[in-house]
Amino acid sequence: MTAMEAVKIGLLGIGTVGSGTFRVLERNREEIARRAGRRIEIAWVAARDVAKARAVVGDAIPVVTDAVAAVADPAIDIVVEVIGGTGVAKDAILAAIAHGKHIVTANKALLALHGGEIFAAASARGAMIAFEGAVSGCIPTIKVLREGLAANRIEWIAGIVNGTSNFILSEMRAKGLPFADALSEAQVLGYAEADPTFDVEGIDAAHKLTLLSAIGFGIPVQFDKAYVEGITALTDRDMTYAEKLGYRIKLLGIARRTARGIELRVHPTLIPASRLIASVDGAMNAILVKADAAGVTLYYGAGAGSEPTASAVLADVIDVTRLMRAEPQERVPYLAFQPDALSDVGILPMAEVETSYYLRVRVRDDVGVLADLARTLADAGISIDAMLQQGPGDDRGETDIVILTHPTRERSFDAAMERIVALPAVRPGYSRIRREDLG
Amino acid sequence: MTAMEAVKIGLLGIGTVGSGTFRVLERNREEIARRAGRRIEIAWVAARDVAKARAVVGDAIPVVTDAVAAVADPAIDIVVEVIGGTGVAKDAILAAIAHGKHIVTANKALLALHGGEIFAAASARGAMIAFEGAVSGCIPTIKVLREGLAANRIEWIAGIVNGTSNFILSEMRAKGLPFADALSEAQVLGYAEADPTFDVEGIDAAHKLTLLSAIGFGIPVQFDKAYVEGITALTDRDMTYAEKLGYRIKLLGIARRTARGIELRVHPTLIPASRLIASVDGAMNAILVKADAAGVTLYYGAGAGSEPTASAVLADVIDVTRLMRAEPQERVPYLAFQPDALSDVGILPMAEVETSYYLRVRVRDDVGVLADLARTLADAGISIDAMLQQGPGDDRGETDIVILTHPTRERSFDAAMERIVALPAVRPGYSRIRREDLG
Questions:
Q1: Other beta carbons less than 10 A from residue A51's beta carbon
Q2: CA dihedral in degrees (B53, B57, B58, B62; nearest 10)?
Q3: Catalytic residue among A90, A143, A208, A290
Q4: Is B151 in contact with A329 (Cβ distance < 8 A)?
Q5: How confident is chain A (439 residues) per 10-residue block, as mean pLDDT?
Q6: Contact flag A315-B139 (C-beta cutoff 8 Å)
Q7: Which helix (H) or strand (E) holds B33?
Q8: Using N-to-C axis directions, what is the helix angle for A163-175 and A179-188, rounded to 10°?
Q9: Domain ACT: where (chains A, B) (predicted)?
Q10: Which of B9, B24, B131, B311 to mutate to test the interface with A (most CBs of A within 10 A)?
């Protein structure tokens, strides 16, 4: 079909995503060439465990062990980094850029933590860095934000961007499981790792949200400014109450532009059950974007996994293949905005963020307790949107009161909570979950 | 920010989409320049009604009346066609291509009917044709299919791509309205035109589906081969029965790759209520794509309207701006696949399509009627998946029998129906609606 020479890739890593990339490229070789107009070939694979790599790629492709040294190979055009982490991956990417290679990576942690350094190095060498696979697996979220919605002023982005925690929350809701049991189930099924910290503590979601916020608003990558709260403290009881009030609880990454600064926060969130994103269950991802001209759009798909992530990685490879010899101004900027046109709008500290709250407190079932709670909130300027009291008290004379507030600043809410926990009828421990309308 | 000269646009048409394009470009001038690296300016507007155009654009921009003559203007780089239809729009686009202009259009009818001719002319002149606004409004469906999923073999595409008919179906379901009343409501609210034929007969959806099928499968644009059935014959009674069986009825455009050919069909479809796309209500659009590596992904947003469509039109303008001076091989092919790599797989005639059916027949409530129906279907090799009979007969001794079949060829189903309507207990008139699992 084409007389052009094949594009040669050095593939760093042959784990879950790497083997998917190898497999999809093999299987769809013709289909990809029909679109790209050129053949795309893997020149070699870099892997620490040669035997394991051989088990995936067979004997046809060389396997090298030193990724950092390998990227100097003059025969390759593109380095695909799917090792993950911020160690060898970072060294290899910086070395590859120094050798004039273009980069495709699915490494959200690396870009969220060291994006500034890496993009600057690439820019100085005229190298492309494509990272669709770093956010929401196969869903072309980065392309959509960078290009599809490029004429819009993005107002906010709210996404389910961690499949593991969404799977756990779905199981908690569907089966009434406590968090620990749902986590065990996720581990048995391979949706959660032995050490699930990155997923269940919201860190992985915050890495992705950081990248999305940069692309959406034209701000630098600022992971250290993100507010991050995971799902480990969620109880099935709160899920049940939320349900009764017409809500679902999801771990959302939210980036919002406000007059006072950019909100950048990951936390469990009550969302109206009627919203499409509330029905996104299991290990799936979905990103909602509110933009001034387009309105609300939603993008849904598998957020992780071997071939879904490979789909994104290879889409990037095709894009890079097309634009390898193009002038820099013919390429989409790494973070959507021209590097000299970034905004210095600050990230809003969480205490300054305005949102609504779900509050559950356990109280002695006495006359006047509810009035005391309501009065304390009112004194802090917080008005109540809905309330749920669970019938008469249990045999210890205790009952749950659930309150949905109207929007208020987190600082005010925290101050009110200090006074509420000091009320004599209020038992230790309470649940506070933020609530978003997403309309 | 940039010393590069502004890109100049000739805007053909200043109706709903044209005025949105003007407005969004004015409002987001800075945001767009921050991304595109160049200013984008409207040089003039072509409109038949100068006074009406002036009411939108004021005095700052010239208004010309002859679109076909105007596109020769050497000062413009890009022609944005939002006139619609296949008359002046076609002449103006062909004239613009002849003058070496790049084209952005939201004209699905024109491309579905004359895409072959227009793409060939553009290719010969090295002109770009971008048409994101032609399908599903602001949702970047074409970009997603052409680029985001470029590494995949697309298996099928199923979409709600006509907001008017989806609004009508949503109203019929929510309020139990007959079709005619829901249509009137849509007309009063501005969701349907005085002559709603294009929308409610499925023609508009088929235009869009035709474009999606070309991009998804690498086949030529073949609107004349599409099977098209609208929603005018749907009854609220069928919506109620569908609901009872766990389904919703949506007007879907379906393009599917099979071993025997490509399915290309628009018709009302029962889909499981649990699918995300079943909850897409009102004038919204959603496209489901099944791809071999990515799995199922969904894209949701406003499918029409002034600013949502402008969002897509201007995204195209930004893309074209970037690649105006690029080499042809650096641009994404019009229809995703290289023009010399199109496939000649045929479109499957509807009689050969295999799908499941919802069938409602009105029968005399006699012993043995159900057995006769089941026997007739069995004789045609059609097996029954579920059945619903509405209690005892009415005062005329008549009742509805609803049957869901397993997949069968349409030819077999039609043959069985000929025998079923000839059964003595079967009353004239029946409903037959195709059913898809979309899993």
A1: 8
A2: -80
A3: A208
A4: no
A5: 79 97 97 94 97 96 98 98 97 98 98 96 96 96 98 98 98 96 96 96 98 96 97 95 97 97 98 97 97 98 96 98 91 91 93 98 91 96 92 84 98 97 95 96
A6: no
A7: helix B29-36
A8: 120
A9: 358-434
A10: B311
Contacts of B315 in chain A (CB under 8 A): 147-151
User: Looking at the predicted structure, is the pLDDT value of residue B294 above 70?
Assistant: yes
Per CATH, the architecture of A7-138+307-341 is what?
Answer: 3-Layer(aba) Sandwich (3.40)
Q: CA–CA separation, B330 vs B322, rounded Å? A: 11
- Domain range summary for chain A, segments of one domain joined by +: 7-138+307-341, 141-302, 354-435
Q: Kindly provide the b/e burial profile for residues B223-241, where b requires at least 16 CB atoms within 10 angstroms of the residue's own CB.
A: bebbbbbbbbebebebbeb
- Residue B3 pLDDT grade (very low, low, confident, very high; cuts 50, 70, 90): low
Rounded to a whole number of angstroms, the distance from the CA of A276 to the nearest CA of chain B is: 7
- Tell me how close the Cα of A239 comes to any Cα of chain B, in angstroms: 20
Sign for the pseudo-dihedral over CA of B315, B29, A339, A149:
negative
Which are the catalytic amino acids of B? 208
Instruction: Identify whether A244 is a catalytic site residue.
Output: no
Q: How far is CA B352 from CA A324, B109, B259, B347, B412, in A?
A: 45, 26, 12, 10, 9
B334-360 pLDDT per residue, tens: 999 998 888 889 999 999 999 999 999
And the tokens for A203? 């860190």
Q: Judge whether A3 and A317 are in contact, CB under 8 Å.
A: no
- For residues B119-132, give the mean pLDDT: 96
CA–CA distances in Å: residue B75 to residues A300, B9, B57, B112 = 42, 9, 19, 30
Q: Which residues, in sequence order, are bridge partners of residue B290?
A: B156, B296
With CA atoms as reference, the chain B residue closest to A31 would be: B153
Residue-wise burial string across B273-297, b where 16 or more C-beta atoms lie within 10 A, e elsewhere: eebbbbbbbebbbbbbbbbbbbbbb
- The residue assigned the tokens 């008549």 is B398
pLDDT score at A329: 87
Where does B355-435 sit in CATH, by number? Answer: 3.30.70.260
Q: ipTM score of the complex?
A: 0.96
From residue A259, alpha-carbon distances to A356, A365, B371 in Å are 18, 43, 69
Q: Smallest Cβ distance to B298: which of A146, A300, A325?
A: A300
**Whole-number pLDDT of residue A2:** 44
> Looking at residue A1, what is its pLDDT?
41
Backbone angles phi, psi at B228, to 5 degrees: -130, 120
Look at residue A3 in the predicted model and tell me its pLDDT.
55
Amino acid sitting at position A403: I
Architecture of domain A354-435: 2-Layer Sandwich (3.30)
Average pLDDT in the B259-267 region?
97
Q: Where are the beta strands (DSSP E) in A193-294?
A: 227-228, 247-258, 261-272, 284-291
Amino acid in position B142: I
Chains A, B: CB contacts under 8 A, how many? 246
In angstroms, the CA B359 to CA B365 distance is 17
- On chain A, the residues whose CB falls within 8 A of the CB of B131 are none
CB A276 within 8 A of CB A105: no
Facing A295 at nearest CB: one of B1, B138, B293: B138
Q: Which class does domain B141-302 fall in?
A: alpha beta
Average pLDDT over residues B64-89: 98
Query: Would you list the DSSP string of B76-139?
Result: -SEEEE-S-SSSHHHHHHHHHHHTT-EEEE--HHHHHHHHHHHHHHHHHHT--EE-GGGSSTTS
Give the pLDDT confidence of B74-85 residue by residue, as tens digits: 999 999 999 999
Give kind and range of the element (H or E) at residue A428: strand A426-435
* Contacts with B295 from chain A: Cβ below 8 Å: 138, 301-302, 307-308
A271 or B5: whose pLDDT is higher? Answer: A271
